[in-house]
Amino acid sequence: MTQNTQLLKGILEGCILEVISINPIYGYELSVKLQEYDLNVSEGSIYPVLLRLQKKKLIKGEVKKSPNGPNRKYYYLTEEGIKSLEDFKENWNKIRNQVDNLLNWEELE
Amino acid sequence: MKSKELIRLNNEKREKLTEENRKYYEKILIYIRVSLAKRELETEEILSELLDHLLDAQYKGKSAKEVFGDNPKEYADEIVRELPKINLKDTMSLLSSGLLVFIASALLFSGIGDLFIYFVVDLNVLTKEIFIGSLLLESILSIILATTLLYLIINFIKWSIFKNLKSITEFFILWISGMISVGLFMLIFWSIPNFGPTIKIHSYVMILFGVIIFIGLLINRIINKRKKDKIIE
Fold it and tell me: Which of A28, A45, A48 sits opposite B56 (nearest CB)?
């Protein structure tokens, strides 16, 4: 597990940025969305990531009053967040192709 | 929303948790709150987010363990690591007001004590001779001791939260360390000889200075609070 965590951390950050970019969202909703995509992360693990993304100023939280239920902190992408997400997508595509090539070397030969 | 409001809401909402979930959540809560030098508003915001999430999950039949994992300490550590630290300015103002409270209380206690001895026991004089050298050394040593003790207590709390100690054991450890602390303070004041230049100071003057410092701190606090409220609005 530990050898995967570093890699997964970065990927999880990218996925969270992507989900937030679609719609401003609060923590619980975000965890539900991630699970809809079968992303196998424990629900709680999104919060350290959200804090980290806020520290990097990639996302911003805003507490909104809601008529029913408690006030929720909604997360938005900042300008830097939008840029970072684009970078992530680009890097991801590159790495995915490279790794796919490497893992499928038998077929290519 | 201000931290105080968030703390109040948190207290209310925690009541809705099941016994098991509440125990788990409160461990995380205490551990994160006693972690030093973290910005208060951000700390309370994440605590209320975690609580809201847990309430939603509980409603769907999930337990705190399923949401935050089997190891609450590791999870709380992760949160603490990512929380923003308080800045230098706030640290300095926190330290200096702590120091001023310390000085003002020392002046008040000493002044009132002398008055008490003078009027009730009829033993003392109202003018006190103070050895500046001893006073400085005593103050520095007690500040160092107090800081160390605070640091140790916080770490003891953080360590004991996830240990499930029996409350008797916990009480005993705290009692022993309390006795040792008092002993150490007494040792400082008794073992340091009189040295350095002396000044004479009247008990009423000491009390007056103590009161002035306290009033100053109070005014400062009110002004700061107004400023903060304005920023938030």
Answer: A28
Nearest CA to B41 out of B78, B72, B87 is that of: B87
pTM over 0.90: no
Mean pLDDT within A43-48: 91
How far apart are the C-alpha atoms of A62 and A26, rounded to whole Å? Answer: 9
Specify the CATH number for the domain of residue A31: 1.10.10.10
Q: How close does chain B come to A52, measured CA to CA in Å?
A: 6
- Same domain? B78 vs B153: no
CATH label of the domain that carries residue B52: 1.10.1900
* Greatest mean pLDDT among A35-49, A60-74, B59-73, B112-126: B59-73
| Interface predicted TM-score of the whole assembly (ipTM), two decimals | 0.83
| Burial class for B19, CB neighbours closer than 10 Å (0-12, 13-18, 19+) | exposed
Asked if B94 and B194 sit in the same domain, the reply is: yes
- For residue B201, the SS3 value is strand
d(CA A82, CA A88): 10
pLDDT of residue A71: 81
Q: Which of the listed residues B35, B52, B82 is the one where a domain comes to its end?
A: B82
Q: pLDDT grade, residue A109 (50/70/90)?
A: low
User: Do the Cβ atoms of B68 and A28 come within 8 Å?
Assistant: no
User: Could you tell me the residue range of the domain that residue A39 belongs to?
Assistant: 2-108
Please, are residues A57 and A71 in contact by the beta-carbon 8 Å criterion?
Answer: no
Q: Are A59 and A76 in contact (CB under 8 A)?
A: yes
Domain membership of residue B26 as a residue range: 3-82
